[in-house]
Predict the 3D structure of the following.
Amino acid sequence: MSTKKWLIDPTHSEIGFKVKHMMFTNVSGSFQNYTATIETEGDEFENATIEFNGEIDSITTGNSDRDAHLLSADFFDAEQFPKITFKSTSFKRTNGADFELKGNLTLHGVTKPVTLETEFSGLMKDPWGNTKAGFILSGKINRKEWNLNWNSALETGGVLVGEEVKLNIELQFIKQ
């Protein structure tokens, strides 16, 4: 079988996350500048190789002051650690259109394994004849495992920023 390469369509993809603020609401954010590729044997995605590279300074939460704080040494330290990367170690079908994606996430100079639940949304031809594949990924990480430790105690107890980060990712790839 021949190897197929798929490139992300960034205009139809979102790399998003949510984290608790003040212990009871969520703040959402996303990365705006990134690349991703999938390599498959033939047209099947099981056992595909998946890579992602994101620019830390493209983070946005809808609040410029908060975004600037996230880029500072208190959080991502974008000057010292400008990229977030992911490289798959396995991509296995678990049931029907559901897959389990395992890989190594490098963030803030630390590499740790992560597992993401993945739903394959299917293949479709766009109006220009390109074959596209869709995926929905979700998972959780603990930001402290990547040395993202900044926080502030609340007067009423608890902390300002939660440790658990929920990942909400919608991707469209174009077959090359």
In short: The longest strand covers residues 110-125. Residues 3-175 form a domain with the Lipocalin fold (CATH 2.40.128.110). The chain has a mean pLDDT of 94.
